[in-house]
């Protein structure tokens, strides 16, 4: 039986929305988690049997898929890109909402392709799958950020990237031509760990499920009002 549950959370923009959810689920990081001067990467919590690791978004999925962490929070964009069979994503947390889209320079959206495209992206697997489903071969150039620069500087004709408000595309002269998927953050669990922790992970998942249900009902009543 696994004693300490390792909970992986991403460093980036999901963190601010994830922390209140974790606190509502009864997981409070120790004070050094909030100390910007600290170089620690693993943190205790109010529960002596739960520790937190703070890693890059893509690495949350890798740690959990390999069982090095047992549970985590990550965007569905990352889950879809890796497609790890060991990952179980039982709860849509309703945070980190955006979409993953194709974008091209303004004015080129009607240009026909000759069946071969060059695409700059952080998501090569998702991108290849998307274009293959349309019978188009996509040559992917992997970037880790600032994808919007690629068409501007002639690195690629198009990009596949996350879009939320659309401001980044607009300010870099790009327009969205296709949506690959809607994205939100999910609770992810390692399938083997789920069974090995004496029901403690299942219980944790249930707490997050209840919170997600409550907040989606809240959002629905807000819209209805
Ligand atoms: N504009 C956005 N609006 C809402 N959610 C977003 C947006 N951009 C990214 N996300 C979500 O947040 C996750 C982490 O994105 P973020 O931009 O913080 O990471 P990053 O800085 O690109 O990651 P890293 O530096 O670890 O490579 C994404 O995987 C996605 O699920
Ligand atoms: O539609 P918007 O609201 O403008 O959001 C989209 C931007 O947000 C993300 O980048 P992020 O700010 O995380 O920086 P990154 O390029 O370093 O990933 C994404 O990669 C886009 O660039």
TrEMBL record:
NCBIfam families: hisG
Signal peptide region: none
Annotated catalysed reactions: 1-(5-phospho-beta-D-ribosyl)-ATP + diphosphate = 5-phospho-alpha-D-ribose 1-diphosphate + ATP
Keywords (A to Z) from UniProt: Amino-acid biosynthesis, ATP-binding, Cytoplasm, Glycosyltransferase, Histidine biosynthesis, Nucleotide-binding, Transferase
Pathway(s) served: Amino-acid biosynthesis; L-histidine biosynthesis; L-histidine from 5-phospho-alpha-D-ribose 1-diphosphate: step 1/9
Swiss-Prot/TrEMBL domain comment: Lacks the C-terminal regulatory region which is replaced by HisZ.
Location(s) in or outside the cell: Cytoplasm
Cross-referenced Pfam families: HisG
Tagged with keyword Nuclease: no
Protein name: ATP phosphoribosyltransferase
Domain of life: Bacteria
Family: Belongs to the ATP phosphoribosyltransferase family. Short subfamily.
Subunit architecture: Heteromultimer composed of HisG and HisZ subunits.
EC number: 2.4.2.17
Known role: Catalyzes the condensation of ATP and 5-phosphoribose 1-diphosphate to form N'-(5'-phosphoribosyl)-ATP (PR-ATP). Has a crucial role in the pathway because the rate of histidine biosynthesis seems to be controlled primarily by regulation of HisG enzymatic activity.
